[in-house]
Amino acid sequence: FFRHWITTRRGGTSINGFGSFNLAYHVGDEEKSVIENRRKVNGILCGGAQVFFPAQFHGNGVVRLSHNTATGCEADALIVSDAALPAGILTADCLPIIMADASKKVAGLIHAGRQGIFRRVIDSTIKKMSRLYNCFPGDITAAIGPAIRDCCYEIGDDVFEGGYDYYERYKNHDGRFDMISAAADQLIAAGIKPDKIFDSLICTSCRNDEFFSHRKQRGKAGRFMTGLII
């Protein structure tokens, strides 16, 4: 009932660490390059309609997207039910998740970095889909996009300070963190059936030739988009 996509870092006009299909303004790329790259996305994937991007802040805010939603609203997840209203999130190591309930014709996008997982943005999104549209979690399908994996995501113990020590179980003996397992466990705990969870199996750091990686590129990286339109 909807179309969805994940862009790569190829086919755009940006240069250097933003080469070439960066879609984010805030990373230091030239504005004219981002404008042109977004124009390409809008034309090729959305019939000319402009993709809505929230102001992501690594939290658990969830917004139901409508034609009246304010530009620049802060959120790390969008819920979409209106036709011809394209939505997108931007990542470069964080976890992009597409959600869909075909029976209710409701879809969602989640930007889940480490802090978003700690703050349970996944659970917040599923609860809001259920509250607003009577979605039953068992009917929801979830797809996990390219993100940094435990093969490459090394962290220190300090990231668990502030009440997040529960998530230490997802750190292996080599000091690398498994965001994908943490996210999958949250999906299942929220009622998503395991056979309705699909994983791209792509690590953005390992596949930095195809996707931007904030860590691999030492902070000077563009952002690719996970998007959808009903």
Write up what this structure looks like.
By secondary structure, this protein is α+β, with helices and mostly antiparallel strands. Helices cover 19% and strands 20% of the residues. It has helices spanning 31-45, 114-118, 121-133, 179-189; strands spanning 3-6, 62-65, 77-80, 87-91, 95-101, 106-112, 140-144, 197-199, 224-229. A 6-stranded mixed sheet has the order 2-3-6-5-7-8. A hairpin with a 4-residue loop joins strand 5 (95-101) and strand 6 (106-112). The longest helix has 15 residues, at 31-45. The model has no long low-confidence stretch (mean pLDDT 97).
Fold topology:
Elements: E1 3-6, H1 31-45, E2 62-65, E3 77-80, E4 87-91, E5 95-101, E6 106-112, H2 114-118, H3 121-133, E7 140-144, H4 179-189, E8 197-199, E9 224-229
Parallel strand pairs: 2-3, 7-8
Antiparallel strand pairs: 1-9, 3-6, 4-9, 5-6, 5-7
Question: How many DSSP helices?
Answer: 4
- Residue ranges: pLDDT <50 for 5 or more in a row? none
What general outline do the C-alpha atoms trace?
globular
**How helical, in percent, are the residues?**
10-25%
End-to-end C-alpha gap: 6 Å
The percentage of residues in β strands lies in 15-25%
What does this entry show, briefly?
The chain is α+β, with helices and mostly antiparallel strands and 230 residues long. The chain is built from four helices and nine strands; from the N terminus they run βαβββββααβαββ.
Tags for this entry?
three-stranded antiparallel beta sheet, 19% helix, globular, six-stranded mixed beta sheet, alpha+beta, 230 residues, 9 strands
